[in-house]
């Protein structure tokens, strides 16, 4: 079964890319990725484009991030804004939540 090297999720055979983060799937996770990461919920954003910008900013600051979008966006890899019912939930490792919240807050205040 293929795995996402970023989200650590397992997918059915034949799947080539992660539907959440678009990473290319691998057959086996490296040993260091097998360690359990305690992911914490950071925020829900209704603007998918903004959520992707926040994810990129967090990762540029060394904070690994999982972005879970609503089924419509996940299934069809849509990158639109303003769709009714659209959302993206951000998750970060437990030890990085405060730093992530600071970055998120600064982006929302300037956005």
Q: Main beta sheet, described?
A: 3 strands, antiparallel
Question: Approximately what portion of the residues adopt beta-strand conformation?
Answer: 15-25%
Q: How many strand elements?
A: 3
Distance between the termini: 41 Å
DSSP helix fraction:
25-40%
Count of DSSP H/I helices: 3
Cα-atom radius of gyration: 14 Å
What does this protein look like?
The protein is of the alpha+beta class. It has two domains: about 1-35, no CATH class; about 35-110, Alpha-Beta Plaits. The chain has helices at about 50-60, 70-75, 95-110; strands at about 40-45, 65-70, 90-95. A three-stranded antiparallel sheet has the order 1-3-2. Residues about 75-80 have low confidence and may be disordered.
Keywords:
single chain, Alpha-Beta Plaits, 111 residues, alpha+beta, 3 helices, 30% helix, 3-stranded antiparallel β-sheet, 2 domains, 3 strands
């Amino acid at each position: 079964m293929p795995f996402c090297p970023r989200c650590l999720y397992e997918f059915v055979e034949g799947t080539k890319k992660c539907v959440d983060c678009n990473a290319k799937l691998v057959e086996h996770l490296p040993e260091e990725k097998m360690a359990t990461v305690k992911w914490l919920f950071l925020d829900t954003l209704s603007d998918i484009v903004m959520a992707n910008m926040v994810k990129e900013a967090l990762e540029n600051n060394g904070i690994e991030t999982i972005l879970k979008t609503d089924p419509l966006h996940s299934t069809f890899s849509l990158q639109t804004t303003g769709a009714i019912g659209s959302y993206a939930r951000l998750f970060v490792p437990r030890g990085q939540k405060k730093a992530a919240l600071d970055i998120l807050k600064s982006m929302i205040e300037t956005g």
